[in-house]
Structure formats: C-alpha cells, structure tokens
Amino acid sequence: MSFVFLWTDVLLWILFFISIYGVVKVRSNDILLQKWRKIFSQPLALSAFIVFAFYIVIGLSDSIHFRFDKDTNTYSVLDRVLIDAQTSDEKTYSTPMNFEQFSKEYLDNGLRGRVHLNLVSSEITNSDQNFDQILSITTKAFFYSVILILLLILISKSIFSINLKSASSKAAFGTIFVLILFCVWALLIMPNHHILGTDKAGIDVFYKAVKSIRTGMIFGLLTTLLALPPAIMLGLMAGYFKGKTDDVIQYIYTTINAIPGILLIAALVLILQVYMDEHAQDYASSLERSDLKLLLLCVILALTSWTGLCRLIRAETLKLSQLEFVQAAKVFGVSNMKILFNHLLPNVMHLVLISIVLDFSGLVLIEAVLSYIGVGVDATTMSWGNMINAARLELSTDPVVWWPLASSFIFMFILVLSANLFADRVRHVFDPKGGAND
Fold it and tell me: How far apart, in whole angstroms, are the C-alpha atoms of residue 305 and residue 105?
C-alpha cells in the first residue's frame, strides 16, 4: 500500500495542526480561555460545535488517500469505512431504505410483464421482511450506542471530573449519543440497504452525500485560510500608514467589489478550465486533476472574498493607531513592523475570528451555487452542488425522483446551521460590545 498526497489533503491537515496549536495557545492564555469557556457554556453552541467537529472528522478521514499494490484506484479511509455503500452495483434508481428498484422492468422471460426488480445488494424479498430487518438493526444500534455513551460518560467523569448535571454536559452527551447512534446504525444497515437510495447510475446517494462533506469543508476552511493573509496585511497597512498607502489599498478592494462577484468567479474559472483542458497531459490521473481544480477554485474564491475583512481591519486599525499604547511605541522607536504585528494584530484578532466563523457557511453555499450553474468543481468530484445540479432534471420526472436533492440539502443544511449557531455565539462573546455584559 502506498499513500497518495493531494494538495487539498496536505493543506487540510496543515490547517488541522494549526488549529491544535491554537488550542494549546488558548489554554496558556487565561483571558482567551475564559472567553472560550463562556462560548461552550451555552448548550446550543456546544451542541453545534460537536456537530461541526463531526463533519471535520469525516472530512479529515476522507483526506487520507492511498493505493493498494497492483491497483490503480485511489481510496481514502472514509471509502473503506463506507465500502458496502461504495461497492453497491445497482442498475438504476431506488428509494431510501427500499429493497426494490424504483422503476419497473420486464423479467427475462417476459411472462409477468413489468415489475419492480429486487436490488442486487439486498437479500430481502418482501416489505414485511424489510421492515422487520430495519427494526431489528435499529434496536441493535440503539443498544450498542447506549453502551458506548455510558462508557464515554464514565470515562469523562472519572478522568476529567465533568459535572454531568450541568446543562452544557447534558447537551454535549445528548448530541454525542445521537451521532454515535447514527454512525452505528448506518454501519449496520449499509450491507443490505441503501440509506438514501440510489441515483440514476445505481450509485448509493448516502455515499455521495457523505463524500461531499470533504468538498464543503475544503471550500469553507481552505478558502478562508487563503483569504486571511491579504486581508490582514493590507487592512493593517491601510489603517496604520494612512496616506497614499491607504488610498492604493482602498482603490484595490473597491475595484474588486465593483465587479459582480459571481461573474468574476465564473470568468476566472472558465479561464482555468480552458487552461487545464489544453494541458491535460500534465496530470497523472483524473483525481489529481480534479483536486488541483478544486484547490485553484478555492484560490479564486479567496482572491475575491478578502475585501470585506480587509475593510473591517482597516477601520479598527485607524482607531487603534490613535491610542496611547501605539503612540508610546512610536516615541520609544519601536519599528513599524513590530507595532503592526505585536501591538495592532492581537487587537484585531477578534474581528478575524468572527469573520472566519461567519464566512464559513457562506462559502459552503457558494460551492453549491457555482456547481449548480456549471462553473464549480470538476464533474468527477463529489459535492452537494453537483448533486443539486444533477437533480434538476430528476424533479421533472413522473414520479418525482426527490431523494438525491433532499439528501444534499439535508447534509448541507445541518453543516451550515451548526456553523451559524456556533458563529453567532463566538461573535457575541468576542465582540467587545455584544459580549461585555454576558
């Protein structure tokens, strides 16, 4: 077995380790630690963070790629976990949790006319048997989940001395129990059922929806990471140096803002698409080609989305540069770079953090919009936008094929909702005005 390193994999893991480093730094800072404890003291914010972290774990597990010896296919850890859903070989549509095809077909002998054929991966032959098996698996999953959550509660109480009677603890363990129950139930039921049905090509929709999490996380996290350096640097320089420097930086982001965002992104993506089509021989495989396009699309989005944060940092820096501690640093001969990074940057980081958590959900939705209009990720890349785009024609069929669209919507909705709920709490606590009396 050999590992395959994609650009987006490397960047996601770098971002993960940066986050771990940030957690260590927060624990060593009493003021920041107190603020984060205040954030997690709200049960709703804590539950939202746990759901969001669950998505991150899925995205990271799908960012460890490898190939087996004498096998040209590339797999991820998530692929091996969902192997039953990945290797399902159905002919066409099937509804969620069904044992028959959605459409009717003629039998080989043609004597019985058109009937709903049984799915290849299912050994169930009638509705009663299907219901009994689903009920049995659900009961078993609930039993296993209760055991796991009780073990987790016991470990947490004995090692970390967690107060189980607090509202935040109840919310945390309740959310974790639901996630454990869902995971155990999904793993037990996948061998004989398609949880969210199959699409036109017979591919498991649940597998596609879960695989799309990585694409959403890349758009939300990497784009934000790439947009931070220009936003922070130019915002600090504009607010501190003022004069011509401020005029030039304002001219740059005002010009970018004057161009309709979707049109600018679409134009850059189309230019990128033409270039990659003309240099197709430069890519070792279709996976690496689609991954590079995904990364470059994040770069394009970052180049067009840094202006809002830059304007906020500029305004805050203009105010801070007039305060006594900055004036004193100038009098004592402290260099401009040290003033920018040692005195001003720490005092605008609350704006950066608020912007990160608020912009994440918007970037996830942008991916869906871009893929829907045909200028998003590569067609071979699993994403919620591609699923929504493919579902357009399915909604006009009779009967309606609704589950691919509903599946992508539900997965995206849960991610965006959890991010927004957590972001709202972060904004409230870190905003000097909003969280002052909390």
Answer: 50
The per-residue pLDDT for range 124-171, each reduced to its tens digit, is: 777 888 888 899 999 999 999 999 999 998 888 887 777 777 888 889
Model pTM? 0.86
d(CA 59, CA 40): 23
How far CA 352 is from CA of 73, 147, 192, 323, 431, in Å, comes to 40, 41, 47, 20, 11
CA-nearest of 273, 214, 300 to 9 is 214
Q: Residue 191 corresponds to which tokens in the numbers above?
A: 């061998």
- CATH topology for 205-430? MetI-like fold (1.10.3720)
> What Å distances lie between residue 139 and 41, 87, 145, 188, 214, CA to CA?
33, 26, 10, 11, 30
Cα–Cα distance for residue pair 404/385, rounded to 1 Å? 11
The rounded distance, in Å, linking the Cα atoms of 31 and 39 is 13
Taking each continuous run of H as one helix and of E as one strand, the counts in the chain are: 18, 5
Q: Are the CB atoms for 153 and 164 separated by under 8 Å?
A: yes
The residues of the chain that CATH labels 1.10.3720.10 are 205-430
pLDDT at 437: 47
Q: What's the length of the chain?
A: 438
- DSSP per residue over 109-154, as a string? S-SS-EE-PBPTT----SHHHHHHHHHHHHHHHHHHHHHHHHHHHH
Neighbours of 145 (CB within 10 A): 20
